[in-house]
Amino acid sequence: MLDVHGLRKVYEGSGRRTEAVRDLTFSVEAGELVCLVGPSGCGKTTLLKCVGGLLAPTAGEVRLAGRRVEGPPPGMAFVFQEYGRSLFPWMRVGQNVELPLKQKKLGRERRRELVADALESVGLADAAGAYPWQLSGGMQQRVAIARALAYEPEVLLMDEPFAAVDAQTRADLEDLVRRLWRERGITILFVTHDIDEAVYLGERVIVLSASPTVVQEQLKVDLPAERDQVHTRVSPRFAELRTRVYEQIQAAKRGGAGKAVQ
Ligand code: ADP
Ligand code: MG
């Protein structure tokens, strides 16, 4: 579904050069939920922007269903970290969710159905008439997720979407993402700096090195599909997986390939 090949991104401007991403190659199958984890500043946002066609790579390419991404492709939706800035404060929740659908040339009835269904899916069926600033941070991020869902994307890109909410809200939102993924069969690429979150959410974890970024390791998460915050996180396998990711990230910081632990 998604192929990233030899992706490199160098920022240039005012005499400075930053090689944010050195050489990234990985793919994501249709219907997969893949987490990318790496330290802050390692180029995760840069990578997602290139994948989403918001930023042109310096070298390499991104393909969505075989077609080269050269601008925001119609089948992709984004959920960003800064929910506060991603919703329009002067529009009601329902209007925010409906906005991207207007590009899709759908009839008014169909748009209404999609908006109602998406809000229902994220547990905000009653909030359509509210303004975003009347909602808590966690609820605002639910609205952003509903907006992405209503758009019916093939691929959903999420950039540290829960980094700014409290722990309980975050746990609920993680479970929401897994539920939506299972119900809707969307392909999800989820970026986080949080190792536990990556292991809890992902079917596969791609570990990124520090900037300039390369893929350090890919790890299949063989936890059961049915996960829950209490039992999954204390299971021995969860502990093994998180330890392994942690060691890979430490190894990446030292610049070595790291010794894999079984
Ligand atoms: P992450 O999301 O993993 O924290 P980013 O992709 O935001 O990392 O940034 C990766 C590197 O690229 C950092 O060193 C950052 O300072 C640099 N960078 C990000 N955006 C720009 C930009 N627009 N211009 C120059 N450098 C940038
Ligand atoms: Mg970032």
From TrEMBL:
It holds the Pfam family ABC_tran. PANTHER family: ALIPHATIC SULFONATES IMPORT ATP-BINDING PROTEIN SSUB, TAURINE IMPORT ATP-BINDING PROTEIN-RELATED. The lineage of its organism: Bacteria, Bacillati, Actinomycetota, Actinomycetes, Kitasatosporales. It comes from the Bacteria. Keywords: ATP-binding, Nucleotide-binding, Transport. This is ABC transporter. Residues 2-235 form the ABC transporter domain. The keyword Nucleotide-binding applies. It comes from Streptomyces lomondensis. The keyword Oxidoreductase does not apply. CDD domains: ABC_NrtD_SsuB_transporters.
